[in-house]
Amino acid sequence: LGLAAALLTCGPLAAADSMTESLRPLKGAEFEQSFLTQMIHHHQEGIEMAKMVPHHTKRAELTDFAEKMTKTQMADIEKMSALLKSSAGSSTAQMDHSKMGDKKMDHSTMGDKKMDHAKTDGAMAGMGPMESAQGPEFDRMFVQEMIKHHTSALEMAQLAEGRATRAEVITIAKKISKEQTDEIQKLKSWEAKWVK
Fold first, then answer.
1. HEC string for the chain
2. Cα 17 versus chain centre, distance
3. Sequence-distant (≥ 6) Cβ neighbours of residue 194 within 8 angstroms
4. Which residue has better confidence, 99 or 185?
5. Of 4, 24, 36, 26, which Cα lies nearest the Cα of 168?
6. In angstroms, what CA-CA distances link 152 with 38, 42, 103, 184?
7. Closest CA to 155 of 14, 11, 29
8. 9 versus 146: which is more confidently predicted?
9. Is the pTM of this model over 0.90?
10. Using one digit for the tens of pLDDT, what is the confidence trace for 112-125?
């Protein structure tokens, strides 16, 4: 995780992300359910941003990046949705035998509210200005917003690598960590070239 750690401690992006912070107090199945839910929403945000690229850029490499990212994240969403469905079934069974189930459900709901708030204030809010931008201006804005967005996902994935207990959740977290790290590297190289 050397490179990933270096990316997270670089500049203003090192600021704590609200989604990551909402996960820190959680453990075990409760953590996994919240992590999967938030990462699915987070990936959906990224896909929405990527959909804008072909209509606003003239750079073939950026269009190719958006297409590949969308394909990768859609596959991640499919896998995480299946894991979330299986964990939800397990949580339901636990609720029948423990009063703690109610607290888990309440916390999960609170997590969704935090995610909705983050969507409004975070990446989705940044899409407004991008919608009216074209060419180099759009390229600059997309690269900078996507670096922030990927960094948020990387923070959550790295936390999951240490907090999750199910092997399948740890595996998808590690996969996301690698994907986001590789893509942040590429985005930062473009930022250095395109942003004056």
1. CHHHHHHHCCHHHHCCCHHHHHHCCCCHHHHHHHHHHHHHHHHHHHHHHHHCHHHHCCCHHHHHHHHHHHHHHHHHHHHHHHHHHHHHHHHHHHHCCCCHHHHHHHHHHHHHHHHHHHHHHCHHHHHHHHHCCCHHHHHHHHHHHHHHHHHHHHHHHHHHHHHCCCHHHHHHHHHHHHHHHHHHHHHHHHHHHHCC
2. 11
3. 136, 139, 140, 143
4. 185
5. 36
6. 11, 9, 26, 11
7. 14
8. 146
9. no
10. 434 443 443 455 55
| Phi–psi pair at 110, nearest 5 degrees | -60, -35
Distance CA 193, CA 185 (A): 13
Angstrom CA distances, 55 to 43, 77, 135, stand at: 20, 24, 10
Q: Which residue has the tokens 């990933």?
A: 4
Distance CA 18, CA 43 (A): 16
**Residue 38 · residue 160 · CB < 8 Å:** no
Residue 138 CA to residue 144 CA, distance in Å, equals 10
Torsion of CA 77, 144, 110, 91, to 10 degrees: 20
Token representation of residue 102: 């109610």
Which residues, including other chains, have CB under 8 Å from residue 7's CB and lie 6 or more apart? 13, 151, 154, 181, 184, 185, 188
State the residue for tokens 């199910």: 166
